[in-house]
Amino acid sequence: MIELAGLTKRYGRTTAVQDLTFSVRPGVVTGFLGPNGSGKSTTMRMILGLDHPSAGQVRIDGRRYHQLADPLTHIGALLEAKAVHPGRTAYHHLLCLAQSNDIPLRRIDDVLDLVGLAGVAKKRPKGFSLGMGQRLGIASALLGDPRILMFDEPVNGLDPEGIQWIRNLMKRLAAEGRTVFVSSHLMSEMALTADHLIVIGQGRLLADTSMARFIEENARTFVRVRSPDHERLRAALERAGGRPRQCPDGSLEIEDLPAARVGELAAENDVVLHELSHQQASLEEAFMRLTHESVEYHARAGR
Length: 303
Prior knowledge:
Layout: E1 2-11, E2 14-24, E3 29-33, H1 40-47, E4 55-60, E5 75-78, H2 90-100, H3 106-115, H4 130-142, E6 148-152, H5 160-175, E7 179-183, H6 187-193, E8 196-201, E9 204-210, H7 211-218, E10 222-226, H8 230-239, E11 245-246, E12 252-254, H9 259-268, E13 275-279, H10 283-291
Parallel strand pairs: 3-7, 3-8, 5-6, 6-7
Antiparallel strand pairs: 1-2, 1-4, 8-9, 10-12, 10-13, 11-12
């Protein structure tokens, strides 16, 4: 488990992270979301002891990072895929990590095979593609077979097969009872991967909740219905207490009646339907709605 209590980081007059308190629990994939500049990377660096908090603390299974003997056997992380010595082969990069953390050398071949790099183990990472570099970074995180995994943008540079692989890997690791904490800007991918969400904006905690509840609380859901006799349908919906909204394509949108009731009303009034569908909001829509006031960098539409 990762536990943050009042975590704060200041750089001069700039506060990058302010009073963050949350826990990342084992057994689920926890997504870490926030706009650019929200403090996600700074938070992850403080978890690993790479940056020192101005206030508050982080504990990894009850201890601070510097108190962990052989830390890679407790927490494995991918923060920057290119953070490798360009003159070492992939194998020797992992060998240095293994020797410094008292990890059995047989584990090197295991993780290289797991991430699909066994065939290039003797090659130098400086010639690797971005996707291959990501796979080596993931291998480094897995090397100590830790109970806690932390990934920052793990799908960068991966092809569709690689994206599906890392998604399934994170789910499997969580199913084994491990703690999995992952940051990504790809909302569609996060929606398929994460069970729980931590959302921050301008360094502050905005949400700590399940994926389903986050979408339910922060995005609009409605029923869309189309009929060649939409005026009669509208009247029936209004008599039942609904407030249908007319769309440019002729369909009606209703937020205050469930799809089943809309269908029943149409049947009771002999109204033919061409469409009746429940529209579930996306994670992206929910995220944008919650964080729109926390976005630090805004682009303007071009001509």
